Amino acid sequence: MKKKLEIDSHSIVEARERIDAFVHWTPLMRSSAINKLAGCELIFKCENFQKVGAFKARGAANAVLKLQPSQREKGVATHSSGNHAAALARAASAAGIPAYIVMPATAPEIKKRAVREYGGLIFECEPNLQAREEGLRSVVSTYGAVFIPPYDHWDVIEGQATCAYEIVESGLSLDVLMTPVGGGGLLSGTALATHFFSPETKVIGAEPEGADDAQKSFLAGKRIPLQQANSIADGLLTSLGEINFAIISRYVTDILTVSDDEIIAAMKLIYERMKLVVEPSCAVPLAVVLRNKSRFQGQQVGIILSGGNVDLARLPFR
């Protein structure tokens, strides 16, 4: 790895203790009906029940709580289209510091509303990476706030690793553990936690075909930035981070992709069979299992349901 590994088993345990008062220990759920369809035993880690409705609460809380007092004074800043924005705003509010959030004007209204409710100050920008980064530079320059990236940050990754650590703590011995992958915060954290605490478990990333830079990067052995993204899984439309890629390339077994139609079908299945509200990004791993039944036949497969912040007025099914 080009970057020195700054996370170990002890730091993950410490992170879980550090954020304990700020996050939920989310439940594990099963569905016999979905197991029958998939041909394997699926265990769902329900981060849609997490604070702010997504796993992002873990990484944001850990990063904010690890700041030095002198860093906290002027607050924190980030650019995000949704869940990280709300998570950072909430973590900052709990720490009693301001949060400055640059968000695309096209971000889902439910996610903007969450940021405001947690006390975050939103600066809207055009929906492209250049505009987001320029907006962030302006905010940091104006307020002197500390930038907390959504995924390409050791403390954020360490916080996300606590999700898989909880699965291991529950006593499960999984054959496979799957997460969605966008920027790679959850997948890289999951890969590290699994490497340290359950090394016999294979970690697989799940990605939309319309935003498949992680798979391309994984297969090429080098980071290939996302050029164009077109998928209903709005939480995964971002390029894989540098630190995240270094971890994923070393500790992840594979990254598999699915179509939007398959994502929608899996999302609908979770609503109908499990009565759970999940966002499209959340359904990608289940779609991968259903597409590749022979690969997972008879195995015990964990899936992290990454979040439930969906705009109910824009559900992709009836």
From TrEMBL:
InterPro entries: Ser/Thr_deHydtase_PyrdxlP-BS (IPR000634), TrpB-like_PALP (IPR001926), TrpB-like_PALP_sf (IPR036052). Residues 22-307 form the Tryptophan synthase beta chain-like PALP domain. GO terms for biological process: D-serine biosynthetic process. It holds the Pfam family PALP. The keyword Lyase applies. Keywords: Lyase, Magnesium, Pyridoxal phosphate. Its cofactor is pyridoxal 5'-phosphate; Mn(2+); Mg(2+); Ca(2+). GO terms for molecular function: ATP binding; D-serine ammonia-lyase activity; L-serine ammonia-lyase activity; magnesium ion binding; pyridoxal phosphate binding; serine racemase activity; threonine racemase activity. SUPFAM superfamilies: Tryptophan synthase beta subunit-like PLP-dependent enzymes. PANTHER family: SERINE / THREONINE RACEMASE FAMILY MEMBER, SERINE RACEMASE. Belongs to the serine/threonine dehydratase family. This is Threonine dehydratase. It comes from Cyclobacterium xiamenense. The lineage of its organism: Bacteria, Pseudomonadati, Bacteroidota, Cytophagia, Cytophagales.
